[in-house]
Amino acid sequence: MSEIKIKKKYFDKVKLINHYNKKYFDGNISEISDADYDLLKKEIILLEKKYSFLKHKDSPSKKVGYKPSKIFKKISHRVPMLSLGNAFSEEDLLNFEKKILNFLSQNNDSHIAYSAEPKIDGISASLTYVNGKLKYGLSRGDGKEGEDITSNLATIKDIPKIIHSKDFPEEIDVRGEVFIRNSDFNSLKEKFANPRNAASGSLRQKNPEDTKRIPLKFIAYTFGFQKGLNVNNQHDYLNKLSEWGFKTNPLNKLITGIDKLIKNYDEIEKKRTNLDFDIDGIVYKVNDFTLQKRLGYVANAPRWAIAHKFSSNKAISEIKDIDIQIGRTGALTPVAKIKPINIGGVLVSNATLHNEDEINRKDIRVGDTVTVERAGDVIPHILSVDIKKRPKNSKPFVFPQNCPSCGSKTIKEFNSITKKKDAVRRCSSEGYDCDKISIEKLKHFVSKEAFNIDGFGKKIVESFWKLNLIKFPQDIFLLDYKKIEKLEGWGKLSVENLRHSINEKKNISFERFIYALGIRHIGLENAKLLSKYFGTFSKFKDLSKNNKFNELMNIDGIGETQVNSIKNFFSNKMNLIVLNELEKILSISNALKKRKKGLLNNKTFLVTGKLNGISRAEVKFLIEENSGTTVSGVSKKLNYLIIGEKPTKRKVINARELNIKIIDQVQFLKMLDKTS
Ligand code: IVH
Question: How far apart are CA 581 and CA 574, in angstroms?
């Protein structure tokens, strides 16, 4: 082969591997199987070894940041790695503090001290130390289990490997952010879209030597499991971290009062462009650990912390078209297809229009010049229309009266709580009768919080659907792998991986299973409540036979809206078939029995009237923490009615008639004393 031909062959291969890298890091798209990728890499390196005249700045032999491998072992976090709720305005912050004060039952002029910490936009990691030695380091993963990336994390200079300090806890998971400085990112610009991708890619290299070549940094800010940590608040913990040899953010501050938080936020936002690391907001954490413990968690985020995101980026563009997307619950969401525009480093070509009312209120039309806003990770939306620039022949947008997917009538439901019609228009067909709804249901079924099937993302659902490989959830477990192997982009290895990840998920917890069904108004929290209530899948399924839907109203947290939605779900024959089919294939574990049998075990409680110095939410938390249950009405199932000031008379009378014990908050708290 001539030198020119060899060079061409070589450059084509380097170009190809870079194409795969870019797809993978910027779009998380894997267009090549791991095995084929490794082969391509090997071919390039072999060519370089054979022909000394071959050189390319983007060769995999020179550059790190290549496709991470899936070799990492998964390890459970002893304490889950949660996410944070977002605040975008002063109002959001005032609400955040109000909720905290309500929960703690403190009056509105009490003040809470917060640790205000700039939120670095990197990759979080959890480092486990035992007797002062770094034992392992995990990525966040899905929050419950992470990947064992110890050897890669160990290459980071900021991460201490041995800590001799006397007061360093016997065991602790030190958690923080891995990131790349903007100045260091400059040399990696061609490979990655942003510093965050670069940090993520290099952390997940097969070979730690590759990770070592990228100047990763680590800043510590919280902890997971701990034994022997002797600090009472976040501020002291951050100070201890630096004493122990960790880097902490020099811009961290202890602040009391929302007005001062805003002042600090404004100051840091002004400094933002001059910082050598990307920050996308400020995290506020209630400083006192005792208060944090009392406040606890809601779903996936702590009640005691919030991320105050930096103000959005705006840009002007033009609406090319308005598309109607159909969601899992049949909601029709209008989406503006806009002339692609770069907003804060991200190319935006879609903006949500929310619903029909929003289009009417703002009179948004195709052809309009609009201001688009992108705030944090939220989907971009249209802020305003420039009426002066509106084309003369423009016409108001007519919202479809029929579902664009299945042709069924679209309806706006009447909301019995707000006594108004919903702003959202919905497809009136039930579940699997509408193709688009079915596809969305399947996407939800495989999603992270539901079945979480590795490698089975939204794109795969769409492509398998088109190929008639899946129509109903049970089809996912009965795939024709021979057929898939013949499809473009699939190889033996990738099919084997897929089969493995699907089979792995045949064992599922009851609460995840309920959530995966995608019943409207049944999110993660409600799925948990239902799973606790029924205990087993067969009892849940029996609802279709025994029609005892009204009993569900006894579950604290479940209301009329949820009960109606569950009723609807069970009245649909197709849903019952799906349940039966899934039952045959899956092993659905029963709801977890409470770990400890606290003193309130098997006891049910209901609160009526205003309590003193303690909120209802906290009472509920205390009851559940001690293995008791709260119910929402007086019935034979109730053991204790806790009364405060001005209780609902009816409840007290009913409780007396049923011989239910009536106690006040002092008596209730005494019941807990015995447990401690
Ligand atoms: S605390 C339960 N502190 O923000 C508390 N997180 O959305 C969880 N982050 O995954 C995290 N700086 O990657 C915390 N000072 C800080 C942080 C911080 C950045 C990231 C972290 C986390 C995400 C939460």
Answer: 11
Examine the pLDDT at 357 and tell me if it is beyond 70: yes
Q: Cα(173) to centroid of ligand 1, in Å?
A: 14
Query: Are 152 and 56 spatial neighbours (Cβ–Cβ below 8 Å)?
Result: no
Give the Å distance between the CA of 196 and the centre of ligand 1: 14
With a 6 Å cutoff on the Cβ, whether 82 touches ligand 1 is yes
Which of 115, 174, 283 most suits a substitution to test ligand 1, by most atoms within 8 Å of the C-beta?
283
> Using CA positions, which residue lies closest to atom 21 of ligand 1?
124
- 604-673: CATH, from 2.30.110.20, 1.10.1530.10, 3.40.50.10190, 3.90.226.10: 3.40.50.10190
**Beta carbon of 305 within 6 Å of any ligand 1 atom:** yes
- Of the candidates 405, 423, 428, 427, which has an alpha carbon nearest to the alpha carbon of residue 356? 423
Helical (H) or strand (E) element with 217: strand 216-227
For 435-589, CATH number out of 3.40.640.10, 1.10.1060.10, 1.10.1670.10, 1.10.150.20 equals 1.10.150.20
Q: Whose CA is nearest to atom 19 of ligand 1?
A: 119
CB atoms within 10 A of CB 465: 17
Give the residue numbers annotated as catalytic, written as ranges: 119
Among candidate residues 153, 276, 160, 275, the one with its CA nearest the CA of residue 216 = 153
**List of long-range contacts for 2-10, beta carbons under 8 Å, 24+ apart:** 3/51, 3/53, 6/47, 6/51, 6/54, 7/53, 7/54, 9/47, 10/44, 10/47, 10/48, 10/51, 10/54, 10/56
CA of 283 to the centre of ligand 1 (A): 7
CA dihedral 38, 41, 46, 48 (to 10 degrees): -170
- The contacts of residue 542 (CB under 8 Å, 6+ apart) are none
Q: Would you say the pTM of this structure is higher than 0.85?
A: no
The answer to whether 478 touches 455, Cβ cutoff 8 Å, is no
Ligand 1 binding pocket includes 240 (Cβ within 6 Å): no
Residue 252 alpha carbon, nearest atom of ligand 1: 15
Q: Does the CB atom of residue 283 touch ligand 1 within 6 A?
A: yes
- How much distance in Å is there from the Cα of 271 to the middle of ligand 1? 20
- Residues 200-242 have pLDDT tens digits of 888 887 778 877 878 899 999 999 999 999 999 999 999 999 9
Question: With a 6 A CB cut-off, is 341 part of the ligand 1 pocket?
Answer: no
**For the segment 435-480, what is each residue's pLDDT rounded down to a tens digit?**
999 999 999 999 988 999 988 999 999 999 999 999 999 999 999 9
Judged by DSSP in three states, 409 sits in strand
